[in-house]
Amino acid sequence: MMNYYKTGQFAKLANVSERTIRYYDKIGLLKPSFVMENGYRQYSDLDLLKLQKILSLKHLGFSIEEIFPMVMDNTNLKESFELQIDLIEDKINHLQSLKDALKRASQTPDLSWNMILSLVQLSNEETNIIEQYKNAKNLNDRISLHEKYSTNKQGWFNWLFYQIDFSKVNRLLELGCGNGKLWQENRIDLRNREIFLSDISEGMVEEVRNKLGSDFNCIVADAEKIPFKDEYFDSIIANHVLFYLNDLNLGLKEISRVLKPNGILYCSTYGKNHMKEITEIVQNFDSRINLSNHSLYDIFGLENGEDVLSKYFSNIERMDYHDSLEITESKPLIDYIMSCHGNQNEILGPRLNEFKEYIGELLENNGKIVVTKEAGLFVCRKRVIQ
């Protein structure tokens, strides 16, 4: 039988202040199960579980804006607990490493500056646990929407894989490998080949290393400072990566530097109409929402990609991937929207239930939400200066 509690009882049971409960109610993070005619709030056992998750995530370092979408659907208790367990284990492992390092330092007669610097860096790495989780979750949410609702059943990663000419590859580097999706279902003969999968995120690289084992060389690397000697690779893959670089020109210069003469770059990007309907949906709901801090296609897109690449590469060929989305459920779409790089968490967080109803009405009225996709690949060769 479900138990119900007034605000004071609920706060006491959870060992938090009534002020905290009222604040979560005010901002919409934790609404009571129902409000009586006399205005008294009634919280249930299910609300208590939701509060437990909120407090746990807050303790781990997530902001209120980030917690909103994570507790929107709190029905899968096992999944919720497993998430918290994984994050807590990561934090425990980090704290144990810090403790061990401090013990070693305390027993060292003469501390070196390198040891002190290592301690400073290790002390600061706790925030990376949260950042790595958010990066991985956001990437998975974006990939999941495409995998579930794309009309082109070949799938982006399969299509991309089969555009690569492996017959001329002995050494290959993927920049920004993410979760290694390109290689999970597509395998090649690795005899006499060296494949390097790199990402700027240590968490992503560790995930790929765990998934793919020792067949690939998994390294942390910045595309603007590639840690290899000149003319080392036959081919380089940059899948939806180049528009995220701080200095695109520097990144292309580095890619050209480590490619062999006539080496091939495979780089993908989007067109200006890519996912435009999703932008229209969120801005119709609230015109302040911007899903990206930058227009990625203006930095490096299908429309300007050839001009951007032509300084360092020749024989540039554009290949388009024809696809669209037909979305029939609200949650995967909302998860995708909340994973974007803009200001949506701040604006949508307190209004998630309202936004969910809004998306639900769109689906009910139209049966599905059709979304344009414009993605493609540039295949080009390193320009050889005579």
UniProtKB/TrEMBL annotation:
Record-level Gene Ontology MF annotations: DNA binding; DNA-binding transcription factor activity; S-adenosylmethionine-dependent methyltransferase activity
This protein's UniProt keywords: Coiled coil, DNA-binding, Methyltransferase, Transferase
GO terms, biological process: methylation
Positions in coiled-coil regions: 78-142
The protein's name: Methyltransferase domain-containing protein
Domain annotation HTH merR-type: ranges: 4-73
SUPFAM superfamilies with a match to the protein in the record: Putative DNA-binding domain, S-adenosyl-L-methionine-dependent methyltransferases
